[in-house]
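Form 7-S
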Amino acid sequence: MARPHTRPLALPLALIVDHNDDTRNMYAEFLRYHEKCVTEEAADGRDALAKAITLRPAVIVMETRLPGMDGFELCATLRREPLTRTIPIIVVTADGSRAHHERARESGANVVLIKPCTPDELLTEVLRVTDQWRERSGEDVGAAT
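Output:
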């Protein structure tokens, strides 16, 4: 399990969820390198759900093809859970079909990006949704401590 980067403290926490270690690590390292987020990682849907409820990240970045609980089910579950229903969700998926994209949106995704998604594209969306989330909530929930 990757340990979250802990400096600086006011940065938003991003939960990166992907079954592929390389993809998950690439996105997490990029966000940490640019000091825009601290990160926590999960390789499957069930672990991601537990971490989302416990940590209440500022944003969740996930693939739809996850073991244990797929990304669509995870998205829908996060939207039903009172502690996670307002957390922005960015789905990054290799399936570019319109039906897949619509299903992700219907499940609760705020943004759907198609792989190959560059880390720069992801960073842009992470910053956009976390800024919007902070404006709406007026809270510091989702910031790393």
